[in-house]
């Protein structure tokens, strides 16, 4: 008895190309997810992350029923797939699209939230889990595991809040949430890698200093590598003027060089996420294209997988915790996430306001803004999932009950924070920032006003001039030093703009401002 064409093709594909069917199916579901996301675009209650998770959960349920409970997976997660292929376009696009003027104007605040905040959050979560997990009957984790848990759950996902905030109406708030989200992810990954290098058998009083020193080394060298590759690429694009004949070649060079910067960082055991971010910042500053498609697909891919993986009965059966125990542990982790975030957002906001109290152009971070910044960082997403799989699985598979328990708990926390906190984000933001009050008129008026003697009046003057007298140069240096002490962030930003317009843009390209130079 002969077989049909469909059966014949299925047998051929399954034997010669076993991955064709699952990959094709996943692409179909991914396309379906994008279509549903488009239809729900006007609904700010549901963002792409929530849509992808729900579609993934439905798909996983269907696959689970078809396979008669054997598996809910279409593809098996591989952390190498995430870190090598999915993460680079996400971070590069974030660096490419960052609003540099606001980002660098609030650079110290963003870095304090994104770097110091991660250290504080990691400390609280690591210590809290070490203290509370044994009381819940969840024992057996090592010191490395507890520190890794701290970094895993310190990584945020601010996409939901950013989709609700309006950049033109709340520029300061949007800049802080966006900037902290990117720096937070980079810091979490760098700190996670630093934890992996700790020799716990020989811990002493200098261990914390070694970890911090290793972190600073990874952070600084990765940043410099990204800046270097970005400048070289911008110089090549400007000198050879690729865009004159083909914007496709220009875009291809930028994407390939950004990916090369990431791979070089990984090759030299640095942080590829930091390198490709600053590479994107430099390229966007001195070049002219935006690259967002792969970033969007990569993020959707990850959350789609999270939805299907939530129904992986193999991990639930392997886990050392019951369903009730998993909910208890996940609840503790979520509570520590809330506490760890509050422990740095509110104190650092107060400190920032104190530092900027004399700055005429600096906007204060109001208590409502602080609540939104705190809330925006409560969702956990792709980076948390990837780090958990890297720490507790081998190529997405684990047979250890403790490791399986941590993976399932991570998935539960990501699902809960993304769905519950994500759904509540819009009503919270609308309650705290009504539309007619969220336009930051105060901040805009500050930016337009210029007090007597404001540095804005002489923004085009050089740092020092050989055409002027020594007394004039000394007087200017004295005024600059006074401004640096009173308004450090604005003064540094102002002089960087002058240096950038005078020396950097003529060499590396980029638009030249007509009136007021901006970054």
From TrEMBL:
Primary location: membrane
One MF term in the entry's GO annotations: sodium:proton antiporter activity
One protein family per Pfam: Na_H_Exchanger
Region (Disordered): 438-459
Gene Ontology process terms (BP): potassium ion transport; regulation of pH
Reactions performed catalytically: Na(+)(in) + H(+)(out) = Na(+)(out) + H(+)(in); K(+)(in) + H(+)(out) = K(+)(out) + H(+)(in)
InterPro entries: Cation/H_exchanger_CPA1 (IPR018422), Cation/H_exchanger_TM (IPR006153), NaH_exchanger (IPR004709)
Alphabetized UniProt keyword annotations: Ion transport, Membrane, Potassium, Potassium transport, Sodium, Sodium transport, Transmembrane, Transmembrane helix, Transport
Highest taxon above the source species: Eukaryota
Membrane topology: Multi-pass membrane protein
PANTHER family: SODIUM/HYDROGEN EXCHANGER (PTHR10110), SODIUM_HYDROGEN EXCHANGER 4 (PTHR10110:SF179)
Name of this chain's protein: Cation/H+ exchanger transmembrane domain-containing protein
């Amino acid at each position: 008895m002969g077989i049909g064409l469909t059966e014949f093709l299925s047998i051929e594909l399954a034997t010669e190309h076993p991955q064709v069917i699952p990959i094709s199916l996943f692409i179909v579901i991914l396309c379906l997810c994008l279509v549903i996301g488009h239809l729900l675009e006007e609904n700010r209650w549901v963002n792409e992350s929530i849509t992808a998770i729900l579609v993934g959960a439905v798909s996983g349920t269907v696959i689970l029923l078809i396979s008669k409970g054997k598996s809910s997976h279409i593809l098996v997660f591989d952390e190498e797939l995430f870190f090598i292929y999915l993460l680079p376009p996400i971070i590069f696009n974030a660096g490419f699209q960052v609003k540099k003027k606001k980002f660098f104007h609030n650079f110290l605040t963003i870095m304090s939230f994104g770097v110091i905040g991660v250290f504080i959050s990691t400390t609280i979560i690591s210590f809290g889990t070490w203290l509370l997990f044994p009381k819940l009957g969840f024992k057996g984790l090592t010191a490395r595991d507890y520190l890794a848990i701290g970094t895993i759950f310190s990584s945020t996902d601010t996409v939901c809040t950013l989709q609700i905030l309006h950049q033109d109406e709340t520029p300061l708030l949007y800049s802080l949430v966006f900037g902290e989200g990117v720096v937070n992810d980079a810091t979490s990954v760098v700190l996670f890698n630093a934890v992996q290098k700790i020799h716990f058998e020989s811990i002493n009083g200098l261990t914390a200093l070694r970890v911090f020193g290793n972190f600073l080394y990874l952070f600084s060298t990765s940043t410099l590598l990204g800046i270097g590759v970005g400048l070289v690429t911008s110089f090549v694009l400007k000198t050879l003027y690729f865009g004159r004949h083909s914007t496709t070649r220009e875009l291809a060079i930028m994407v390939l060089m950004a990916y090369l910067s990431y791979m070089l960082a990984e090759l030299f055991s640095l942080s590829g996420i930091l390198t490709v971010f600053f590479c994107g910042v430099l390229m966007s500053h001195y070049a002219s294209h935006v690259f967002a498609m792969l970033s969007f697909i990569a993020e959707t891919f990850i959350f789609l997988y999270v939805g299907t993986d939530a129904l992986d009965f193999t991990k639930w059966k392997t886990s050392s915790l019951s369903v009730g125990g998993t909910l208890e542990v996940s609840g503790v982790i979520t509570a520590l996430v809330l506490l760890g975030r509050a422990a740095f957002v509110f104190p650092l906001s107060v400190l920032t306001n104190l530092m900027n109290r004399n700055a005429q152009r600096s906007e204060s971070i109001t208590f409502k803004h602080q609540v939104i910044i705190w809330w925006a960082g409560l969702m956990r997403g792709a980076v948390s999932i990837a780090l958990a799989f890297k720490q507790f699985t081998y190529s997405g598979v684990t047979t250890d009950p403790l490791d399986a328990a941590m993976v399932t708990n991570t998935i539960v926390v990501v699902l809960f924070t993304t769905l519950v906190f994500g759904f509540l984000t819009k009503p919270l933001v609308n309650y705290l920032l009504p539309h007619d009050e969220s336009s930051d008129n105060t901040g805009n008026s500050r930016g337009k006003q210029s007090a007597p003697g404001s540095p804005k009046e002489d923004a085009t003057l050089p740092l020092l001039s050989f055409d002027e007298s020594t007394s004039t140069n000394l007087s200017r240096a004295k005024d600059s030093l006074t401004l640096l002490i009173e308004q450090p962030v604005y003064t540094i930003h102002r002089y960087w703009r002058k240096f950038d317009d005078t020396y950097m843009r003529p060499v590396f390209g980029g638009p030249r401002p007509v009136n007021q130079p901006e970054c």
